[in-house]
Amino acid sequence: MDKNTKKIICTNFTKGKMHDFRLFKNSKVHFKNDTKSLVDTGYTGIKKIHANSEVPKKRSKKNPLTKEDKKYNQKVSSDRVLNENVIGAIKTFRIIADKYRNRRKRFGLRFNLISGIYNYELEQI
After folding, report:
1. Cα–Cα distance, 109 to 99 (Å, whole number)
2. d(Cα 40, Cα 56) in Å, to the nearest integer?
3. What is the pTM of this model?
4. Separation between Cα atoms, residue 19 and residue 23, nearest integer Å
5. What is the CA 8 to chain-centroid distance, rounded?
6. Which of 16, 59, 74, 108 is the most exposed place for a label (fewest CB within 10 A)?
């Protein structure tokens, strides 16, 4: 998603269930070095692939978060809220909110069409 225009730029899918970060690594998508990526804690190892990434810090039993870590996490989550809003808007089409019960090989086509409809609606506002 582009932060300025709120448009969906790229989508990727797989057959069956797959973790988000594994799907990202298998997709072979590369960011430019100056592109900033805001991700959730599921993408913990992305700093090795793309240095300009912001991942919230995790706490553990032995290492609780400091006040600085909590402020950093709050900053990252406030920047990521735009991504979550786009995901919520896509869920209104019910393609990812419910179990998909149509032909699997057309899922990518339908999702990309829905993304195009979403991007078109942004231009109309």
Report:
1. 17
2. 6
3. 0.79
4. 6
5. 10
6. 16
Closest CA to 40 of 87, 100, 103, 104: 87
- What angle in degrees, to the nearest 10, is found between the helix axes of 67-91 and 107-124? 100
**Is residue 32 within 8 Å of 11, Cβ to Cβ?**
no
Calculate ∠ Cα 34-36-41, nearest 5°.
Answer: 145
Residue 5 lies inside a defined structural domain of this protein: no
The pLDDT tens digits for 34-76 are 999 999 998 989 999 999 999 999 999 999 999 999 999 999 9
pLDDT in the model for residue 103: 83
**Total domain count for the chain?**
1
SS (H, E, C) the chain: CCCCCCCCCCCCCCCCCCCHHHHHHHHCCCCCCCCCEECCHHHCCHHHHCCCEECCCCCCCCCCCCHHHHHHHHHHHHHHHHHHHHHHHHHCCCCCCCCCCCCHHHHHHHHHHHHHHHHHHHHHC
Domain hosting 110: range is: 20-124
12 in a structural domain:
no
Residue from 7, 19, 5 nearest 89 by CA: 7
